[in-house]
Amino acid sequence: MRQAFKYFGTVAGFVMGLAAVSSPASAQQSLTLICSVQEEWCRPMAEQFEKETGIKVLMTRKSTGETYAQLKAEASNPKVDIWWGGTGDTHLQAAEDGLTEAYESPMLPQMHDWSAKIWKQSNGRTIGIYSGALGFGYNTKMLAQKNTPEPRCWADLINPKFRDEVQVADPNSSGTAYTLIATMVQMMGEDKAFDYMKALHKNINQYTKSGAAPSKATSLGETTIGIGFLHDYVATAVEGAPVKIVAPCEGTGYEIGSMSIVKGAKNLDAAKKWYDWALTPKAQSLAAPAKSYQIQSNKATPVPAQAPKMEEMKLIDFDFAKYGSSAERKRLLARWDAEVRNAAK
Amino acid sequence: MQTQQAPLSPRKASVEFRAVSKLYGKVTAVDQVSFTIQPGQLMTLLGPSGCGKTTTLRMIAGLEIPSAGQIFIGGEDVTLRSAADRNVSMVFQSYALFPHMSVLENVAYGPSVQGLKKSMAEDKAKHVLEMVGLKGLGERMPSELSGGQQQRVAVARALVLEPDVLLFDEPLSNLDAKLRRRVREDIRELQQRLSLTVAYVTHDQEEALAVSDEIIVMNNAKIAQRGTPHTLYSEPADLFIVDFIGDANITDVVIDKVKDQQADIQLGPLRFTLPQRGLGQGPAKLAIRPDAISLSADRGLTAGVVSKAFFLGRLWEYTIETEFGALFVTVPGRAAPFVVGSSVMLDFDVSGMVLVHDCPDKKM
Amino acid sequence: MFLSHLPRSVLALLALAWASVLVLPWYWLSSFDATSLNGSLAAFWLVAHGKSVWLAGLLLPLFTLSLVLLPRLSQRQIAWLLSLGGLLALVMLLGQGFAIGLRGWDWPWVGQIVGTQVFGAIPIQQGLGFGGYAYLLAALMLMSQGLARFGLCRGDAFIVSSITLSFGLITLFVFFPVSRVLIQSVLVPDGPGGGTTWAFAAALHKLDDPSIWGLACLSSTRNCGVVWNTLFLGVVVGAGSTLLGLAFALIAGRSQWPFKPVIRLLSVLPIITPPFVIGLALILLFGRSGFFTGLLSEWFDIPRSRWIYGIYGVTLAQLLAFTPIAFMILLGVVQGISPSMEEAAQTLRADRWTTFRTITLPLLRPGLANAFLVGFVESLADFGNPLVLGGNFDVLSTKIFFAVVGSAVDESRAALLALILLVMTLAAFWVQNVWIGKKNYTTLTGKGDSGLAAILPAGVSWSCALFVIPWSLFMLCVYGIIVVGGFVVSLGRDYTPTLKHFETAFKITPSDFGMQFSGSAWNSFFATLEVAAISTPFTAALGLLIGYLLSRQKFSGKSVFEFCTMLSFAIPGTVIGVSYILAFNVPPFEMTGTGMILVICFVFRNIPVGIRATMATLSQVDPSLDEASLTLGASSLTTLRRVILPLLRPAIITALVYSFVRTMTSVSAIIFLVSAKYNMATTYIVGRVEAGEYGVAIAYSCVLIALMLAMIILIQLFVGDRALGRRKAS
Q1: Which of residues 76-115 of B touch C (CB under 8 A)?
Q2: What pTM did the predictor assign?
Q3: How far is C51 from chain A (nearest CA, A)?
């Protein structure tokens, strides 16, 4: 008898568990969101939106590349409604592939120019929600041990004294590093840019897989200098790491974090609601408490004190349309692979 | 084994094979075999290893499904029926006692999987254990029993289901020589007491002669001969049987003349008249049983020289060189011994001599 | 009695088949159409309402099957009806499912034949629901019943059903998705207009690439091709882990050391450590600002360097991770060697060293080959360690990952690289088979062995110790820093003790409604636990069943079947993940976004270990035990339950533990399959590592390690040992 109970209990448990895992989302109005910024920022956004609208947010955090791969694989039957955050050029690629939907938000007039520009370039399929400048950070302790002058410009990084002291991501896996290539090409012209990167290659200790990894390595002292988006370095400095951020003197490029509605979204209305809401100053001011110090796209959003001041930097006029296209990207990466990555040190 | 009122009353059923074949890929294990085992009969399948006897047995059990032909048990076509759906039990060569169950659980397994209540199944098992003389050992694990005891558990486990047919697959091969004799007597006694229909596989001809009502000798996937033990011994169908059932000296002879189904043959300088057994004039084979030759120091038909001599207690085994070849001879152990190298005279008993066909295939 | 010519199982299956079209909802109910009529009706009523009229075709096979209810049919006629009816039902279901998709005809040629008269211009349908799956199951099972009646598998319907069911499952969840992704590798998009063409030439061209095959590292400082890197790493890790595992196994199995329990514990820890954590610990110990690097530079003026990033670091991390598996394999073999053989050698005047060299080591050969193979294959598939520690050292698994999710996405390149990896893995299996050969290594027989195991020669014992002691200390350091990492503010920077990380992840706040799990990790923690708890028993059960079928039953197509079961093990997780999305995001088998797809993915990824363990254990169990049970009138199912399973306990434990642990710790396959409701612990940890919150990641890992240890002990207690009544050696 006890045995019978045991069997029954086990079977019943499974059936219930099975029913639980196989039941799809509930019928209440909901929104499936993929968030490609840091989890701490994703979470309050989703919670706040739920609170204000009563729409249930099913949020998953995935990296930009993972999201793009998923959207592409799911194209014939999308499961995601909206994709919020992540490097703009991947959003542009998705737009180019027809994976996302055009939408004109009533909030559009309140946006910074860079945000509206990417919206126009993508025929309304993606809009900028934040931007961050490219630059580098260095570990002050390590630098002091080295006895080298503080680097201030891109040109300082190819100083032979920094041999094996600079870290940057691999552009094949990271959008951050691709932004660096695109920036250099636009600032110097393509051939000169590649000469610079070949020179820089001698000082690179490691091409990391993730764009944000050099900032962590810099904060731990695993490398003296790390190249990446400045807001990542600000975040480590705020946590107490001996890191100083540098906006290079020659000028620099920047990324535009974007947002797109997925084509064929099952909850299109909810997606549009999120879209409009995420562009309000109120929603955008959730970034700073989550240690995300990017510049927000709404002109009215207050800029946190720690954030790198964009207006004090020399920002280039980044051509997202050209450098975001798949063809140009493939060409530049192939050249980088051939001439830089495989070059002798 | 105690003689006691048997609690079991198995149904007697016949087993019939109709042109049954079994192929494994391109290898024919059993080739067009037909036979019938009468109800209550103990039939032995005898043959060298690889002759198809075990496959035949497994097809009765339902552990193999024939490639062609039909199998009937108790008049019912069971050809495609699975082992679990046939009322046939089997005693395995390795006994196949479940190592994680006690002796009692092993024997009660059959009734309990048939849906009998646990207590009833165990009562039944206890009865049968008592019948095979293992009373009180039910709580032991199989690994704690001797070989002979394990064998009896295996028999008890097979008997408890009161099968239509009981199968034995070389049940004695894991026992020592003395135990073998006792167990085979027990099996025979049990079979006759309960009038079980039994199919019994062995490669040991002595064992087969001792236990069987009838024997089927198999060779190369076919039935070589079928008959009572005595028939096989005295009237072997061919050289293979002669060689397999009992020892024999095979010699070349010439048949001079055939008359009234008797043949006059010439063996070296000697002449005999033997039953013709379908043979014609010309060269033939003669089988001489080793006990059909007697030895003496001075009297006999022909002379020879002792080249080997072994004393086995019950018997003397001699090899004698004669002008028509070496002969293997057995003599009762009480007889006076001959030393190696001495000359002896040989005499022949024609009842221990038989003319035989050459093997259909010369594979010997 | 009426219908007495049919067993209850056939009647029940027929009832299920009819229920699947009359009662159960045919389509998958998803949130966006729960309100529409389409989603909630059974097939018959859909047709009756004039929707999805092609489903009417499904009724025809059911009528055929139901003919068996007629009285006075011969067994042969029933066999034909069931087999053909079942087959027809399968063809109908799959045909309509694949032909008509979400947006109209998926097979336009069928549409052209049918025309637009009957089904409308653009017929659409969703993925199968309960009704559809029930129909599929019933059709498959009824067909098996029919085939069994032709005498297949000794006429045993249970065995035939098990084979067709396993075959069906493996085809659906391994072969189907894998073939989808391989087809993808030679399909080239036709431009923006959509449509694709086959392009073998283009695919082959992609193979010709110095970054894959280049040998530049031999002659210059540049990097070699990724294939050579992978191969080299695999061989080094395979050999290294085998050697270390052997040293540990000899010490644990053949010496009188007092520290053996410690070795045991150390051998389990890496297996249950979530990925990334070992790599992280190595950076914190040996990175440029690492603990030991600091000590060395302060005390001995050894300059700080980055040697850990690259092949050395990856090798070290993989050795740490995979040595325990080699140890467990070799310990079993060391203990299994019959002492009598060694005693026999000694009576032949061989001294201890000669005995060890000529008897013990050669008998270890299959164990060594297996340990090497497992180490090699695990190294090939590992993706966490190269990601964290690889530096500029690329291996296939990371290349594949970034070909799928990197900034230069190229699925066909990913598929090709995956194919190369697959070929390497399969080649390793083949070489192992050749090497072990057909020699007999059986040392475990039914007969008791009362000899005493030979004591290790002193030289061997000391050289083992030379490996074991430093390595054990090293492992203690690694796990020391992992534990410390969970309880300090920031590893490498600030060693103030704190419980902050545990609080962030696992905070529980009491509220008016009882306890509220407000920590950020609870969500993924519960989801992981749920998925692991459900997939583990299924993995073990299916693994045991397939292992039993493969080792005990004869059927055609067996070797293909066996190969397919190994496929999901040999293919890198990232590729499996993508293949699952490609295969299961569209009708007829649509299940992305549910927890079900995670469960299924885990079941079929972890199943090979259960199969192998079962086959290995069954090879030691005399087949006449099963046969004895069958002749005693027990069905195959009863035999499996009452005779085989109790004897398979060691295999059951292996399968349960392995699949549970793998479900808790694997990353790559599921990274695409997780959804908002079903986020998994490991993806959460990866997220923390990416965000640089090592503390939280390590704290979470500590909790998972404790949980898995508890679970292993529980499984051991619940399943228990097989009691064979053998006297225990004192």
Answers
A1: 79-90, 92-94, 96-100, 102, 109-110, 113-114
A2: 0.79
A3: 21
